[in-house]
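Recall from the previous lesson that a structure prediction takes nothing but the amino acid sequence as input. Here we apply that procedure to LisH domain-containing protein ARMC9 from Vulpes vulpes. The sequence below is the only information supplied.
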Amino acid sequence: MGDILAHESELLGLVKEYLDFAEFEDTLKTFSKECKMKGKPLSKTAGGSLKDSKSLIIQKNLITAFDNGDQKVFFSLWEEHVPSSIRDHDSLAQKLEFYLHIHFAIYLLKHSIGRPDKEDLDERISYFRTYLETKGAALSQTTEFLPFYALPFVPNPMVHPSFKELFQDSWTPELKLKLEKFLALIFKASNTPKLLTLYKENGQSNKETSQQLHQQLVEAERRSMTYLKRYNKIQADYHNLIGVTAELVDSLEATVSGKMITPEYLQSVCVRLFSDQMRQSLAHSVDFTRPGTASTMLRASLAPGKLKDVPLLPSLDYEKLKKDLILGSDRLKAFLLQALRWRLTTSHPGEQRETVLEAYIGNDLLDCHSHSQRTVLQLLHSKSEVVRQYMARLINAFASLAGGRLYLAQSTKVLRMLEERLKEEDEDIVTRENVLGALQKFSLRRPLQTAMIRDGLIFWLIDILKEPDCLSDYTLEYSVALLMNLCLRSAGKNMCAKVAGLVLKVLSDLLGHENHEIQPYVNGALYSILSIPSIREEARAMGMEDILRCFIKEGNAEMVRQIEFIIKQLNSEELLDGVLESDDDEDEDDEEDHDTMEADLDKDELIQPQLGELSGEKLLTTEYLGIMTNTGKTRRKGLVGVQQSAHEPLRRPVTPGGHRTAVLEDHPISPQMAQHARKGSVPLLTSTHPPGYKGGEPSTSEPCASCSGLPSCSHPRTHVSGPVSAPPAGLIAAINPSSDPAPA
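The prediction returns the following tokens.
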């Protein structure tokens, strides 16, 4: 009690300060009156009033400097009183500061009577130019501000159409209003009552700690996958080294009889090639004087040792699972969908994951083949936001695996439901992201491409891409990648031709977007649709070449090369000779058997189990354990089937990143698989169906030396793994349509 009384005055002062801050005027009067009646002391809050009056003076001085066009005074106060953390990291503050610099740069042009003082005007323009080259350079990739970087170099901005808006009467008052609101918000935030500060610091600490731990877990998992890939590469290099060494040892053994190399020396050399654990036993137990002994032991070391067994996950009662997914509570449905997804995403790649997927497909987990009125798939349209999102995540996990895509593709109703959810979902961003991710992976299969094109998905993509700054990075990347995949097909190009002007405007705007991950897909889509004469005419009419050349000046070497190929396509005069009316072969299996499980599938989980509540694998094995039916399966042969000589023309579709050195021409790709394009490597782009391709047999012709890498070359081209003069990664290489029997 004594401690409470000792701090009572300070506590009451905190309450009074908060009531005053939140403008509870009547409550504050009653509170103060009651404290006075009970003789409770209130700590003085004169400091708060003093801060308020000082803040008002600063705001007034800033507004006065704004009105008078005094940029030195204004930016001196701005840098002194607006915290650097806000100026440097808050996007609203950065945009406002950019427009404030424009205001002061053109102030004399708008307010001078007659001709403005040239020296003063030059000084202001120079100040603005310095800002653009330093702090303002951060916004140079933003479409909204890009035209203003030319302002210091325009002789008379008042008559230039790009700056017409700046000289309208309404522009300065609107900017002033934004400034006043910003200052009021900033200075109010700086006077936050201590009680609110204490609540934020303590109330949010647990949440922030949880988020930090989750982020650390995600990073640890990513590092683990990176190290695993490095380990596999080192292991492969080790096996190659041992194989070469065995051949060398054979040669050395042949000289033993000539006494040029003694057996003892040969023994010591060979023993050093083995691991430390093997050296002693080999040195004392193996007779290296016998011919072939050393090379035999070296080759024996190539035989894989007994790998650590990865146990198969327990079988489940899928009938009970599907019943609860349909009839259970929303919370139970969400936990079951989460657990089933985790089984896929966290299982060990290889036999364990394949067994899980085979069990899901064999028991038709998603009811893709069911004709019942109520199915698991219908959870995609659940009233519960969590259930909808977790169903979308599970479908995206299925679509991340080649076998899962094949399962989902067997019924068009899955595609239709995803398209409906994509167009209707406006409440949950993560749900839409996962639906979009699944559709983008669907676009690796030709029949599903055709269905999406017929359903008008291209028009929906163009519509949302008109405002790319409103989209998350994931949505933007997958939308552009999906658009490109659909544009590679002749039917997709026909769709784009119907709204050619809009498509070209959207793609040209995306060229300057700050998210550089989308550049390969934008370039690929542009190159593909410009093969149509009507779209080329529209592009020339809107000055597309001038737009592209602007980006040549600013882009890196890889971007420049891609744009140069687009310009060549734009200026091409080739006709398509009726190819666009032909149907593509839908029976052809155009997909590489490649699995890519994204880390984002398990990010930002919405539900957490309460005390005593089961979740994840524990929920499945406790409540839904089935009869043990899981047995070891032989690995799919599909992975072997896609391997071929580096000099052999590719004959089936691949996913970028799955095929290490090539991005196929006129062939779909996934965003997560574009690493070579992003890192600036230049793999050769080869044709899925080279011009010499007939009847399923690849052409054996050598590439035309004089035409190598040129978009207009109609000669067959074989795959080369080394650097060549070819269209850059991510850009679609052109083929002479008249010699291609299977147009895309």
